[in-house]
Amino acid sequence: MATNRRDFLRSIGTVSMGAAASVASAPATALAAGENASPSPHYGMVIDLRKCIGCQACTVSCIMENDVPEGAFRTHVSVYEIVREGKDPAVAMLPRLCNHCDDPACVPVCPVGATFKQEGTGEVLVDASRCVGCGYCVQACPYDARFINEETQVADKCTFCVHRTSAGLLPACVETCVGGARNFGDLNDPESTVSRLLANNEVAVLRPEMQTHPNVFYIGMDQALAGRVAGEAAYRPPFTQLEEEHA
């Protein structure tokens, strides 16, 4: 991506930086606090776009938590401008990350079996010790959620912070979301926060036509954004582009 890491971090502001810093200082948040855990958890994320303010706290905390190299992102918030006839321009936020699909397109194309679906909990992960950096998975991902790490030369992506969730913590992006837009938990547990959100709200996924059955769901997503997966943080396409594509 063309965005310079230092310029990007400076542009976010002190609110996001303070939120990201809380990863190290705030008390750990248990995944299943006050909830009955499912015997076989299947993790997913529900993002309430009505609460997302585009502060990029999630982006910064992910970079800090996972040591993401400059010029790359495991998650970020794309910002779009949507114009409809007779209405004022509207700004729409779209947090993006790996969708940890039930039928991921990235897994079958890996020639060495480095990309795999985590048994039981469902995360899509990369075994860096096996990855040869061919980039097949990067090209196959319908969500533009993968990249070749320039430092390790292997495929990289969001892992739902598996190193944190396996210890009973929330992913860094969820813990630092200042608006409470990101929600993570067990989709198999009907009493979990994510299950209740799915049951009580109309939700959408990105690129449903790909039939990958993603485990990242959006509340309040404008239909003009359903196919939008390209772009970087704070990307703004031409005013009429989205309307023309989804007319």
Provide a compact summary of the structure.
The protein is α+β, with helices and mostly antiparallel strands and 247 residues long. 24% of the residues lie in helices and 17% in strands. The model is unreliable at 8-30 and 231-243 (pLDDT under 50).
Question: Would you give an account of this structure?
Answer:
This protein is of the alpha+beta class. It contains 9 helices and 10 strands. The strands form 4 sheets. The chain has a 4-stranded mixed β-sheet. It is globular and about 55 Å long. The model is unreliable at 8-30 and 231-243 (pLDDT under 50).
Q: What distance separates the N and C termini?
A: 29 Å
Strand order, sheet with most strands: 8-1-10-9
Write down how many β-strands occur, each being a DSSP E stretch of 2 or more residues: 10
Overall 3D form:
globular
Strand content of the residues, in percent? Answer: 15-25%
Tally of separate helices: 9
Radius of gyration: 18 Å
Please trace the helix and strand order, writing H or E for each element.
HHEHEEHEEHEEHHEHEEH
Primary descriptors:
two-stranded antiparallel ribbon, alpha+beta, 247 residues, 9 helices, 24% helix
Topology record:
Elements (H helix, E strand, L loop, with lengths): L4 H8 L1 H12 L17 E6 L8 H10 L9 E7 L7 E7 L9 H4 L5 E3 L6 E3 L9 H5 L6 E2 L6 E2 L5 H4 L6 H4 L6 E5 L6 H8 L2 E2 L11 E4 L21 H5 L2
Parallel strand pairs: 1-10
Antiparallel strand pairs: 1-8, 2-3, 4-5, 6-7, 9-10
